[in-house]
């Protein structure tokens, strides 16, 4: 077998395990969101999307579309360089100032995505000292895991959100080593929330710095939308905050906020920051417009929370196996990869409703699910229709209530 045959072989195994991913050919419609066009079999259908991370429907808002129009007239399209080689525009500089202010940190540093922000920042920081330990929540996102693996620090995985286990690991480590605790605020597949204050206090007891991924929370929580750390009044306790501009902010890109000299160091050495063309200035312009708005408007957040609560309640009332979530994320447990995929396909092809099946390796085997992310544009009528369609499907498959 040559290498390409091996690829085919591995692909066949993925298909046999129901892990093969098919991308729906969609097109977001700014004025009709959450309705998208779905291109299939030479036709175009209108589908209702229930799994977008554009949680607040900012992506298609006039505010952002106009910001892009203005910026594109001003500056054209691409950045035309890395940050170091003519690719830093005033749009980037302004956005970084907005972000630092948002999280009440000295500075912020932009990356081309949230994934790169985590990978580049963690791998850089975790290689800065020859004697270092990192403590990583078991449910951390793949981008954090990749960054942690690339660093040279000794790795310790603590059981999800388990303070006792974290303490045990911290106590067992070299008291002289440099330490970091890395975790998330909203865990995006279960919708539960990290114990930020307790984890930070514990980390600081051991002189560990705290690194928090707020990707699913920025824009969504807190009086100015800066995330769970803001909502809980503990921004000070979090040393480094990582976020995305691609989810609730509605655009694209990632960042790290924290002490200016730490970001200056990452900026100066991280290959994932240095050797890549900077974000398009129009993207930075749109993100800055979105954040400026979300700092002062709580309306989108309130409406989103309302619809998320309604959806959870509607699922529970109908006896559907809604998983306990403390956040805006609403997962329905299916517990079988083939069924999850079948449900998703039937919703799409028979009902023009799109919600992706979440299967292994994104979640553990046996916990396959459909993950719903309502936005302010998902109406009560849409929720009722959805429940009416799901109930017979789950009944037929013999899945009821929480497993
Ligand atoms: C989506 C996600 C990222 C990556 O952000 P992108 O901007 O999409 O690259 C990082 N962390 C978590 C927890 C995520 O869910």
From TrEMBL:
Biological or metabolic pathway of the protein: Porphyrin-containing compound metabolism; protoporphyrin-IX biosynthesis; 5-aminolevulinate from glycine: step 1/1
Domain Aminotransferase class I/classII large: 46-389
EC number: 2.3.1.37
GO molecular function ontology, one term from the record: 5-aminolevulinate synthase activity
GO biological process terms on file: protoporphyrinogen IX biosynthetic process
InterPro entries in alphabetical order: 4pyrrol_synth_NH2levulA_synth, Aminotrans_II_pyridoxalP_BS, Aminotransferase_I/II_large, AON_synthase_class-II, PyrdxlP-dep_Trfase, PyrdxlP-dep_Trfase_major, PyrdxlP-dep_Trfase_small
Reactions accelerated catalytically: succinyl-CoA + glycine + H(+) = 5-aminolevulinate + CO2 + CoA
Keyword vocabulary terms for this entry: Acyltransferase, Heme biosynthesis, Pyridoxal phosphate, Transferase
Cofactor(s) needed by this chain: pyridoxal 5'-phosphate
Subunit and partners: Homodimer.
NCBIfam families: 5aminolev_synth (TIGR01821)
Family membership noted in the UniProt record: Belongs to the class-II pyridoxal-phosphate-dependent aminotransferase family.
Protein name, UniProt field: 5-aminolevulinate synthase
Organism: Nisaea acidiphila
